[in-house]
Amino acid sequence: MTMTTSPTTIPALDMSAVTLTFPDGAGRVTALDDVELAVAPGEIVAVTGPSGSGKSSLLAVAGGLIRPDSGRVSIATAPGAESGGDLESAAVESAAVESGGVPGDVVELGALSRRQSARVRRDHLGFVFQQSNLVGSLTAIEQLEVTAHLGQHLVLSRGRRRAVHDRARALLTEVGLAEHMHKLPGQLSGGQRQRVNIARSLMNDPALLLVDEPTSALDQQRGSEIIDLLIRMSRTQNAATILVTHDPTHLHRMDAVYDMVDGRLRALSVDEIAAQQHPSAGAARVA
Asked: Phi first, then psi: what are they for 238, rounded to 5°?
């Protein structure tokens, strides 16, 4: 199950000794407790655990949405010349440059200003939430094009617009929506809207993909199709992926699986993963 990576591979995400607390009356409650996590490019890591255990907090910290109390969170930004091509803009480069390097460097999120952190999220991270959160007045292809144009100059060159359009078409075709790219969200099924959501998250060729319960609103068949799609797209796009899920069905297909309880993250063994997928068999072995 676990993917073998080169010892010299730089993790796309590296979280070291990360602790996050929130006010709770006269005290504080711990959401993340000394979390250690590294995810390599193209690697898919699943995180399971009960509601309220800290999974969403983990994604928020990894995505630079919340700054932890202590610890280090680093993102290896994708080099534009290698991954983004024509889609990379001056704004993409400036996020890494302003934070102390160039595209392809390791950027520590805690050292960024809010503006710099927003640029890194926009240009190097992809988010897939439980709900697709599509703009009702935009077609499927326009959802992707708008994402690529965020933060750009008001007047775009014809070449830039064409590159964005071609990238959007290619992604929608890859997720199986070639015949639906000019439809509005209201004309798409729940599974199709989530496919648009996934394609949109990959529009800027992110180094890191953060996925929060993408199948919670779908039936089993459509949910399985979405997981299949996420695995395939993460591999082909070489995006490090953290998948938060309550569904154990596909855990054996992940490169690593972690369980989170009370803010503590623990890697699961192959036997523990099998026990989650087949609880009765696991109970029998314990007995």
From this structure: 55, 40
Q: What is the DSSP letter of 131?
A: S
CB 75 within 8 A of CB 109: yes
Domain map (residue ranges) of the chain: 13-132+204-286
> One digit per residue, pLDDT tens: the chain, 287 residues?
544 444 457 899 999 999 999 999 899 999 999 999 999 999 999 999 999 999 999 999 999 999 999 999 999 986 553 333 334 344 334 444 444 344 568 899 999 999 999 999 998 999 998 888 999 999 999 999 999 888 666 667 788 889 999 999 999 999 999 999 999 999 999 999 999 999 999 999 999 999 999 988 788 888 889 999 999 999 999 999 999 998 888 999 999 999 999 999 999 999 999 988 776 654 444 44
**Residues near 227 by beta carbon (within 8 Å), at least 6 away in sequence:** 214, 215, 247, 249, 250, 253
Q: Give the integer Cα–Cα distance in Å for 130 and 114.
A: 25
Burial of 48 (C-beta count, 10 Å sphere; 0-12/13-18/19+): buried
281 is written with which tokens?
């068999």
CATH homologous superfamily, domain 13-132+204-286 = P-loop containing nucleotide triphosphate hydrolases (3.40.50.300)
Name residue 14's amino acid: D
